[in-house]
Write a sequence for this structure.
């Protein structure tokens, strides 16, 4: 852990440039002249709302800028870092694996069998597994497999659920309030035919989903959802919603796909499917699987997954030069083994409850309209909205300006999370009593000024 988990101004190793600009200012300026928007993704560029954000190191619960300032990190790279940054057990496992060899690309490896066996053991829905490197690839593979299995074209997804950036699913993730209930492509350049094949319903509306599934059953290939949509903070699923999805898809043999890219291994060693009591046909995992290393997987029913065993003349092409890369798989094996036993998840759940309660009390104390949503190690303060959100419509009206002011105030005091008001805070095994107290003390000050 870093000595100084506090904020700007704390001593660091960064060398400011001679001309008085910060090192971050200089890097961001250089970035803007060679990278569109100055960051690798639009969502990362949102951090520039807080100032010139450029990080170069991280350790435990902290992240350090190029100017040597350390922040307690609640972003954790959008969630993967469940054990804390640079967990020595994971990093050592990766180094040892890479010392043996970096890429083989033929046949199989003992490592990939080890990790596949662990996923089959842990995830109730998973009988066979294919590895890839990102959540987007995993959902793409799942949908192609489902299309091959059913011979159908359409996919049903839910407003507020994100499943990656490919054309099949990047629809109605964050539609504006006046586009609710329509198909809303999230990007320019998407194939209209793909968007047209993507049906959208509100999350948690069992009747609407059942009606759509029945109406399109002859041409529906898959129903895909985040079982707990964290892409908009946190929507808890109604039991009846999940049960209905399961029953209606099963009756038409349409694969039900759980996108557990955020939830698996962050919330529970067996995925949230184990705690929600519904077993999908296919499951996509990524993020916490590798504690920050790029690794993802699609897994599920043997008969559906078996289609991936073909070659270019038959079966479903599931391919990738770097799929099953030793770095990600070594990280995955070590991460899964460290998470075994449940102590870390108990710690994360207990700490998450205390962050949520503490922050909700502070909103109350300061008379600020808002709520704190979340599940286990994830929490999200949302301003200007109250009550338990059940669908994206309950989230879209939140007060983004107020959230950004909160994020700035917290950043100025040494806490980093992205200023995107729909996103969430994450905890890791390295967060503790001390980070909790500091967060709540500083939130108290910031909320007093809002
Ligand atoms: N599914 C969910 C629920 C996600 O949160 C994400 C990424 O944030 C993805 C899929 C896509 O994963 P990746 O960014 O690794 O492609």
């Amino acid at each position: 852990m870093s000595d100084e988990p506090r904020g700007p101004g704390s001593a660091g190793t960064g060398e400011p440039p001679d001309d008085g600009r910060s090192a971050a200012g200089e890097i961001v300026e250089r970035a803007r002249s060679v990278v569109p928007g100055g960051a690798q993704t639009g969502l990362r560029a949102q951090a520039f709302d807080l100032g010139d954000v450029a990080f170069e190191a991280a350790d435990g619960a902290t992240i350090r800028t190029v100017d040597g300032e350390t922040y307690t990190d609640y972003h954790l790279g959008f969630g993967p870092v469940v054990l804390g940054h640079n967990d020595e057990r994971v990093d050592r496992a990766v180094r040892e694996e890479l010392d043996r060899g970096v890429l083989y690309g033929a046949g199989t490896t003992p490592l990939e069998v080890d990790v596949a066996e662990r996923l089959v053991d842990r995830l109730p829905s998973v009988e066979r597994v294919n590895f890839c490197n990102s959540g987007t690839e995993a959902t793409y593979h799942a949908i192609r497999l489902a299309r091959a299995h059913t011979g159908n074209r359409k996919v049903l997804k839910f407003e507020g659920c994100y499943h990656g950036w490919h054309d099949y699913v990047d629809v109605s993730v964050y539609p504006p309030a006046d586009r609710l209930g329509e198909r809303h492509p999230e990007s320019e350049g998407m194939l209209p035919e793909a968007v047209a094949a993507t049906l959208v319903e509100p999350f948690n509306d069992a009747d609407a989903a059942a009606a759509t599934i029945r109406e399109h059953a002859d041409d529906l290939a898959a129903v895909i959802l985040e079982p707990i949509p964290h892409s908009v903070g946190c929507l808890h699923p109604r039991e009846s919603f999940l049960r209905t999805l399961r029953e209606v898809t099963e009756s038409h043999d349409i694969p039900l796909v759980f996108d557990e890219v955020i939830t698996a291994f962050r919330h529970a060693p067996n995925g949230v499917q184990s705690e929600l009591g519904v077993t999908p046909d296919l499951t996509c995992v990524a993020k916490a699987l590798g504690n920050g290393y790029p690794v993802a997987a699609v897994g599920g029913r043997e008969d559906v997954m078996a289609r991936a065993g073909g070659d270019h003349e038959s079966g479903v092409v599931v391919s990738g030069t770097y799929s099953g890369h030793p770095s990600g798989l070594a990280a995955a094996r070590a991460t899964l083994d460290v998470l075994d036993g449940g102590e870390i998840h108990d710690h994360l759940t207990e700490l998450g409850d205390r962050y949520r309660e503490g922050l909700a009390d502070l909103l109350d104390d300061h008379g600020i309209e808002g709520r704190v949503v979340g599940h286990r190690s994830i929490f999200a303060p949302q301003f200007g909205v109250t009550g338990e959100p059940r669908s994206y419509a309950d989230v879209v009206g939140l007060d983004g300006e107020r959230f950004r002011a909160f994020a700035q105030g917290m950043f100025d005091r040494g806490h980093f999370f992205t200023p995107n008001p729909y996103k969430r805070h994450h905890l890791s095994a390295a967060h503790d009593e001390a980070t909790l107290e500091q967060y709540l003390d500083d939130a108290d000050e910031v909320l007093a000024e809002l």
Observations:
- Residues 78, 134-136, 139, 162-164, 226, 231, 259, 261-262, 286 surround pyridoxal-5'-phosphate (CB under 6 Å).
- The CA atoms of residues 106 and 375 lie 41 Å apart.
- The chain has a mean pLDDT of 95.
- The longest helix spans residues 343-365.
